Amino acid sequence: MKSPQLLASGTAAINMTPMIDVVFLLIIFFLVASHLAKQENSVQLDLPVADTGLNNATEVESLVVNILPDGQWQSGGISLNLQSLAALLRSRASASTDPLRLKIRSDQNITYDRLEPILKEATAAGIGDIVFSVYEAQGG
């Protein structure tokens, strides 16, 4: 490692370039990470209201599947059919070293027939941790 060079006044000059590079890389990392975290919640859904439930504060790897008001499935901004949903669930479950959590966000008016295939495919892929996104009931 190079020692700092002495200036004519007798003080050491410190090269700030590596520290500035690291700071810029951290800024870029956090911008990208926050964008990806917001991507799944960008779909505006009228979520169901629940009187009871748990606030999942634990950070585990999760896959978000949105069920749109028209009944279509979406994950990561990509529309899914049954085959692509099954492939996505299997690939993410097998690629994860820790148990994968499936987070389902659906419109409150969605019927069970649009939800059932997702649950069946998640079970077939070996995903047992399934949570539903809801709004908390007010004044409860």
What does this structure look like?
The chain has 140 residues and is of the alpha/beta class. It folds into two domains: 35 residues, no CATH class; 93 residues, D-tyrosyl-trna(Tyr) Deacylase, Chain: A (3-Layer(bba) Sandwich). The protein contains three helices and nine strands, in the order E-E-H-E-E-E-E-H-E-H-E-E. It has a five-stranded mixed sheet with strand order 6-5-4-7-8, with helices on one face. It starts with a strand and ends with a strand. The model has no long low-confidence stretch (mean pLDDT 79).
- Overall spatial form: elongated
Spatially, the strands of the biggest sheet line up as 6-5-4-7-8
**CATH architectural arrangement of the largest domain:** 3-Layer(bba) Sandwich
Q: Would you list the SSEs in sequence order as H and E?
A: EEHEEEEHEHEE
Give the domain tally. 2
Biggest beta sheet attributes:
5 strands, mixed
Number of helices: 3
| Total DSSP E strands | 9
What's the SSE blueprint?
Layout: E1 5-6, E2 12-13, H1 17-39, E3 49-50, E4 62-67, E5 73-75, E6 78-80, H2 82-95, E7 101-106, H3 112-124, E8 129-132, E9 135-136
Parallel strand pairs: 3-9, 4-7, 7-8
Antiparallel strand pairs: 1-2, 4-5, 5-6
Helix pairs in contact: 2-3
Q: What can be said about this structure in brief?
A:
The chain is an alpha/beta fold.
Which characteristics define this entry?
140 residues; D-tyrosyl-trna(Tyr) Deacylase, Chain: A; five-stranded mixed sheet; 3 helices; 21% strand
